[in-house]
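Supplementary material to the annual report.
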Amino acid sequence: MLTNVRSDRVKSVRSLSRRSVRERTGRFVVDGPQGVREAIRYAAARVDDLYVTSAALERHDEIVQAALEAEIRVHETDDAVLEAMSDTESPQGLLAVVAAEAATLDDVLAGSPRLLVLLSHVRDPGNAGTVIRGADAFGADAVLVTEGSVDVLAPKVVRSTVGSIFHLPVVTGLDVEATLGALASHGIRTFAADGVGDTLLPDVDVSRPHAWVMGNEAWGLPVEVRDRCDEVVRVPISERVESLNLAMAATVCLAASSGATRRV
Amino acid sequence: MLTNVRSDRVKSVRSLSRRSVRERTGRFVVDGPQGVREAIRYAAARVDDLYVTSAALERHDEIVQAALEAEIRVHETDDAVLEAMSDTESPQGLLAVVAAEAATLDDVLAGSPRLLVLLSHVRDPGNAGTVIRGADAFGADAVLVTEGSVDVLAPKVVRSTVGSIFHLPVVTGLDVEATLGALASHGIRTFAADGVGDTLLPDVDVSRPHAWVMGNEAWGLPVEVRDRCDEVVRVPISERVESLNLAMAATVCLAASSGATRRV
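Predicted assembly:
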């Protein structure tokens, strides 16, 4: 059992809460039973190590068994070690170190995607995570993220995807203009979601391949990005409400695309 | 200008971050320009005091003018005083103390509501605030909150409604069984939103008055509550995703009710 909170191993795992360390090592952390379970189910080959407290070992036996069957190294730790490894105060007893996957836009486009989300300069970890979870729930083929956005492998983002980060490709570091060009050349229509849009969500044709383009939480999408999209789409809301937040708007648009709210 | 961070006034405002103080005094705090602006627009008679830093006084002149026209007491403060009054580290220069409104279920029902949300044992401030914002955006007539839920006048909830808390009645402290009974006797159909539901969201009849019933973040709705609702409704999502979070599910259901995603 690992009991030394000052060990190099603990320091090394804990350092993955820093973006620079994640980028240098190509590793990130997922904690909590749901995220760890999905990592083992969908990305076992990328899981380096699983750290489990004694209590979690008992409580989440099926997760630990799945890890052992996948030949993942499982380490029992005391509570203090797991807490020291995690950036959250209540890491729920399970934490895995996972190798990042280098998904590319070309890979995604080669799969003839029907539904995509492009996040442009999204900064809030909770928003990014919720959009990834929503994209997964509503059957998107991938999430595309521009340069200048939050790191999707940050612990808070990974945590708020509740495992969805392992279900679909998330391509990062994209140039927004080049990405819009690539989508257009592959016949994927682009819908900028923005409160200034002329097209109302119920009028959008979601039957053909399309990508929702979502802007920054505070300033939305720059006009030059909106202008390059095929449509600028507004979710119809009450006049007294200034806007939906990013995660809500993305969720509603994705739900509409998937047929979760209407037969398509 | 108020400059003494240790004054009784500062302590008194700061103490409103505690539920017991809010309940005893019938007052709560709203901070940030959007929330304060909506408080003055929609509930000026309930705003006791407005505190503004010098920078915000210049930047948000139209809000301050509206407050003065409504005969609200406006106090200039230095940055330290405003920070000491607020429970957030970046209160954006504006903070108002507002009297709570005692909305009742009877008042709401007397208005022949067409769309309601009932939150049962919802605990997370961000979720509660986002649902109130979504209810407002999608034209709900009121939000109903059961006993055992987060206090909707807590600073984090108020902040995440971004002013919506002043746009529609929020009735709190309700007994879930009694509320479901009252809704039924007023001809309001009740839809429990739950992943176990037999009815899919696209099949729900949203043309008649109805209430969405949302359960706790972790354990959902107790079976006896689900059984008392007219329908148990599931948002259709990918099989690999265990659930939507509460705020996402509520947003999608409310959007469907409002016709934001389909013509109704």
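Chain A touches chain B at residues 34, 42, 126, 130, 133-134, 136-139, 162-164, 167, 201-202, 235-238, 240-242, 244-245, 247-248, 251-252, 255-256, 258-263 (CB under 8 Å).
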